[in-house]
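Schema walk-through. Below, the input block comes first and the output block second. Nothing else is stored per chain. Lengths vary across the set, and this one has 87 residues.
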Amino acid sequence: MDKQEEQALEMGDAAHKLIADPTFTEVVNTLVEGSFQQFVNSKPESPQDRERAYNAYRGLTDIVATLQQRVAVRDQILANRDNNEEE
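--- output ---
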């Protein structure tokens, strides 16, 4: 296993722990809900407020998506390793 693969496995493990942590999930969900509420309750004539709320929402969802991607990469590496060992 090369260094890059080992690093991807470590990042995937860390990301999995974070996603599985109920406190992390609760905080992210609260922040997502808050930014969504700010967006829908902002006035159409206040584009700066709407844009700020939207960007906060997108930032949070991007963080979660990045963590999920790291877990997926880890899982793919492990699956490939298992397939290679079976051959």
